[in-house]
Amino acid sequence: MSKQRKGIIARYWQLLVRPTPLAMGTILLGGFLGGIIFWGGFNTALEMTNTEQFCISCHEMRDNVYAELKETIHYANRSGVRATCPDCHVPKEWTYKIIRKIQASKEVWGKITGKIDTREKFQAHRGEMAAREWARMKANDSRECRNCHDFDSMDFSEQGKRGFEQHETALASGEKTCIDCHKGIAHELPDMAGVAGWN
Question: How many Å from the N-terminal Cα to the C-terminal Cα in the chain?
């Protein structure tokens, strides 16, 4: 190694071991700006994957469950309030959202490997996908449903007799959650025959 290279390495080593105030300030400022850029990019990418357009960009979702959603009250109704895919399937709170995004990577793997790339394959795996989603919603007390629907805000007197009785019983017992009774509210109910753990 030449003396010149050794000298350059020695100077950089001295800068790392005993940085000058200017070097320390530059490092801190660079780290701060790098952190802002990383965080901004990460959040931008996260929010881009949290839109209905992203969800239906693959034909498996667009041609199957999204087509079904368009026929329900969650898509078109008298109040003009539309629920999108992320409204029902992605939590709003950041920590839960990240957990859900990590879980969703399994769904992306299914797309990449072609596990559900045709209507027939989608239908064949639909029961297990639905059971997994229902279990998730049951475990979190239908958190995403409650972003829009809340027992405290419901006017039971405006509901039909059956709905009134069911909601009143669910509220009193505290044991049931939205998904227990509303499994087919936005998508067709799958054939659950042969799905492990399903009665």
Answer: 74
Residue extents of the structural domains in the chain: 1-48, 56-181
Q: What are phi and psi of 109, to 5 degrees?
A: -60, -40
pLDDT per position as a tens digit, 106-140: 778 887 888 888 889 988 989 998 999 999 999 99
pTM of the model: 0.75
Residues 37-52: tens digit of each pLDDT: 999 999 999 999 999 9
Cβ 142 vs Cβ 107: under 8 Å: no
Residues 6 or more apart whose Cβ sits within 8 Å of residue 189:
130, 183
Which segments of 51-148 are extended strands (E)?
none
The token duo for 197 is 């753990």
Q: Under a CB-based contact definition with an 8 Å cutoff, are residues 127 and 192 in contact?
A: yes
3 token code pair? 């003396």
**How many angstroms separate the CA atoms of 146 and 88, rounded?**
9
DSSP state of 56: T
Q: What is the DSSP letter of 191?
A: P
